[in-house]
Specification:
Elements: H1 2-13, H2 18-27, H3 59-73, E1 83-86, H4 92-100, E2 106-110, H5 113-125, E3 132-136, E4 149-155, H6 165-173, E5 174-187, H7 193-206, H8 216-225, E6 228-235, H9 241-250, H10 253-259, H11 261-272, E7 275-284
Parallel strand pairs: 1-2, 1-4, 2-3, 4-5
Antiparallel strand pairs: 5-7, 6-7
Helix pairs in contact: 7-11
Length: 285
């Protein structure tokens, strides 16, 4: 009863934004990957390369490893006037960046009022509110001036956005020579009816736009068309999606099914659809 009421409240606060509602529900206070000790939600699939044993409690270690990988590639400097985390979730990556890099001012951008409120409270409680804030807004229509951002990071946000729209906005707000460092899930074109079924299950349950099904070559071409110079790009499926699948199915079935049926269906999609996971570092020409 309480969970249903909570979902309804989240939906109303999201102004009918179903995508925001889904991710609020999956990652929020009762989320599937909630850390029972810290009560901090999991926010990405994790980088599992140096984690020997995959167990339910290791997701947050893998999250921190992903934060480290993406933030180090952004080449932060104390001279950066404004750093942006696009699709910042609950601001956990922002805390990692502020704790480990010389950043004077960091802004998080999130379309969910629930996550925006949670993130700002989290930053305040961690004593970081004087250096960072989360603002409400869309990654495809950012509330920032042209050429105002020095560094931009994004972890697992682009795949739920309209193709190219986010990258065009990134080009608009980045300063010349500005760096975009991101980790992005790719839902590849299905090769048969079996893969096609599970791709559709992901798209339906996670509200991924129908245009966001493409392969590596198309992804690279899209970045070039948007005016970004790719400095580094690599596939990390073996270190991300494969171990994440193992982690997902190590969760008790009662937890998975009892938590959210739609997320369970999405889990099947992640298990059988053809996926890729890219780490990309690009520069505004």
């Amino acid at each position: 009863m309480f969970n249903s009421l909570s979902k309804a409240i989240h939906f109303l606060r999201s102004n009918g934004n179903t995508t925001a509602l889904v991710y609020d529900d999956m990652l929020g206070e009762k989320g599937l990957a909630q850390d029972l000790k810290t009560h901090i939600p999991s926010v990405n699939m994790g980088f599992w390369k140096d984690i020997d044993i995959i167990s339910p409690d290791k997701i947050h270690t893998a999250n921190q490893a992903m934060f480290r990988l993406v933030s180090e590639a952004a080449r932060f400097s104390e001279h950066d006037e404004k750093v942006l985390d696009v699709g910042c979730g609950f601001a956990t990556n922002m805390k990692y960046c502020l704790d480990n890099h010389k950043i004077s001012k960091m802004i998080g951008l999130n379309i969910s009022p629930f996550q925006t409120d949670w993130g700002n409270k989290f930053l305040f409680n961690e004593g970081l509110a004087h250096r960072a804030e989360v603002v409400l807004g869309s990654a495809t229509d950012m509330p920032f001036e042209n050429k105002s951002i020095c560094r931009m990071i994004s972890i697992e946000a682009a795949f739920i956005l309209i193709p190219g729209s986010f990258l065009k906005e990134a080009i608009r707000v980045l300063k010349p020579g500005g760096i975009l460092s991101m980790a992005d899930l790719i839902i590849c074109k299905p090769r048969n009816w079996w893969q096609r079924f599970f791709v559709k299950s992901i798209m339906k349950t996670l509200y991924v736009p129908s245009q966001n099904v493409y392969d590596y070559e198309e992804y690279v071409a899209m970045m070039h068309r948007c005016g970004l110079e790719i400095l580094h790009i690599e596939s990390m499926s073996k270190e991300v999606t494969s171990p994440f699948k193992k982690w997902f199915w190590k969760r008790p079935i009662s937890v998975i099914m009892g938590y959210n049926f739609l997320w369970s269906v999405a889990g099947l999609g992640f298990m059988f659809a053809k996926l890729d996971y890219l780490r990309v570092v690009a520069c505004k020409r």
